């Protein structure tokens, strides 16, 4: 499973409505893919400048019975993360439409400031930075707190 692509597909549903500027909403998810031989992954997706209903499509159990998902609604994602991919929501929508073979949306109602931030805490795939960039996002690695060395892998 490609985390950034999965984010794009999950977010692609129900992105209509007027924006609430500055409003943030989040969903932390623990994805247990060990039954399929995969890792346990902990992520949190934060959506800004969109209606509160936007997070509803993201914050629910996976449709895949082999992936145990534990979603939890939050006002904001926890600060202590390994890395983060920030992608404009318009870019995610355009990528989804392209994957579905649809033409670009000429009547896009999503504000230019609407953004999805995917924070990664545990089980970070080794190629997540490349996936983030290919999806039109910007990957950043968390800085270690003052006085602490970065964690070794």
Q: What labels would you give this structure?
A:
153 residues, 3 helices, globular, six-stranded antiparallel beta sheet, disordered N terminus, 6 strands, alpha+beta
Describe this entry's structure for a reader.
This protein is of the alpha+beta class and 153 residues long. Helix content is 18%, strand content 28%. The protein is built from three helices and six strands. It has helices at residues 3-11, 89-99, 128-134; strands at 24-32, 40-48, 68-74, 83-88, 115-122, 138-141. The protein has a six-stranded antiparallel beta sheet. The longest helix has 11 residues, at 89-99. Mean pLDDT is 77; it is low at 1-23.
Shape: globular
C-alpha Rg (nearest Å): 15 Å
- State the helicity in percent bands: 10-25%
Q: Which strands sit side by side, in order, in the main sheet?
A: 3-1-2-5-4-6
Strand percentage: 25-35%
User: Any low-confidence stretches, pLDDT <50, length ≥5?
Assistant: 1-23
From the N-terminal CA to the C-terminal CA, the straight-line distance is 21 Å
Number of helical regions: 3
Number of strands: 6
Biggest sheet, open or closed, and with what strands and sense? 6 strands, antiparallel
Overall average residue pLDDT: 77
Give a short synopsis of this structure.
By secondary structure, the chain is of the alpha+beta class. The protein has helices at 3-11, 89-99, 128-134, and strands spanning 24-32, 40-48, 68-74, 83-88, 115-122, 138-141.
How would you summarize the topology of this molecule?
Elements lengths: L2 H9 L12 E9 L7 E9 L19 E7 L8 E6 H11 L15 E8 L5 H7 L3 E4 L12
Antiparallel strand pairs: 1-2, 1-3, 2-5, 4-5, 4-6
